[in-house]
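Troubleshooting: if your tokenizer reports a length mismatch, compare your output against this known-good record of 474 residues.
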Amino acid sequence: MRQIEFIRSNTFLWAAAVAAAMALFVAALFAFIYWKIDDYLIMRSDRMIATQLNFLAELPPGRLNDAISDHLKQDSRGVQYAGLFDRTGTRLAGNIARLPPHLDLGGPVQNVRLARIAPQAAHDAVVKAAGRRLGDGHILVMGRNVDETREISIVVGQALLLGLLPAFCLCLLAGAWLSIRAQRRVEQVNRHVQRIVAGDLRERLPQTNTDDPFARLAGIVNGMLDEMETTINALAGVGNDIAHDLRTPLTRVRLALERGRTHAATLENLQDVVDKAIAGIDQALAIITALLRLAEIESSSRTAGFGDVALDEILRQVCDVYEPIAEDKDVELRVAIDRKAEVRGDPDLLFEAIANLVDNAVKFTPCGGRVTLALVSDDKAARVVVSDSGPGIGAGEREAVLRRFYRSDKMRNTPGVGLGLSLVAAIVKLHGFRLTIYPAPGGRVEIFAPAEETSREAAASDPARARHASLAPM
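Known-good structure output:
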């Protein structure tokens, strides 16, 4: 069964196809070489016959017989033909038994059948020959056997077999090796995937340092598994976090209503009880609304509404909204914009992200403090920096504050549900930007947004890398 799978594997079939194509190409190349050599040898024989014929025809009649005899004696291979005949066709000299009847005297070299005077000549051979009538009426015939081209074809065929067969076998062996190697890697990946399917989310595909398709695919899949493990682990605790955070306002609502039913004696007391119950219900609804908002953003369903967004205008709008709130708390809110900057994104989501950062900065900055909202940009990137003179975020909490419902002990008494920075992180991640949280003292959070062209190219070329680089606490 494994042999059948090995033979049917795409790698082996492709290797066999390449080997067959190479064999056909080499065979065609050898055939072309043979055709060119054969054509060259025939042309060379024709020129040699014409030259010899012209040379012997110019000799005096008394020397012609001796010249023909000397010419044939020098033919060690037995391929030369020469004959001298009188007017009636009687042989006078040479090794040609009789004058060929269809020879065109005075014409070009042609294929004729000549009878050779030799013991080994069992039959007439077809050779290249030419004839000429001399001045005294005699007929001179010169020829050459070109069967040596057959010898060349045999040599070419042997070279083809000796060179092509090993190369073809080598290609098949290479295909077999690649097929076995690919099957082993696939089986190895299957084993790891089966462990992942069985529930071991910490399992990862084997990844080497070589730059091959398997290694790149393993890197992408491992990145996806990292993201899935993070998401699943986060979801595993979301239920408990939601139950914990909703239980507190709902418990307060129940206690307020129970006390109101028992102790409310006047309409004013009953109204106070109802107000407290409404406040608790509003807090529970705020948690649910924030969770739904977070789920909507993380589902990437808002990317269809992306367009060119002027960050400087968004910063001014956020400042206009939070400036009265900062004044009521005696906190100075400043905006510093060095130049205009445009990015590609959703203006409402970007406004919400920056507003959450400013809201946190104003909320945790003590009275008399300062909050600065700055935009620093150039041709390559834009940076939105929200800094304040508050306590800031400790080094051990820079990653924890991005989790849902996380609230440090020193912030338990401040209003909120612990989802603000989670929303900011989700929005930044959706846009392919980078969120950086700097350590205390003092709070400083930065959103790094690459230029519009750079952002588009990065998202199109490597979306997985953009996902993993979107959150970078420093």
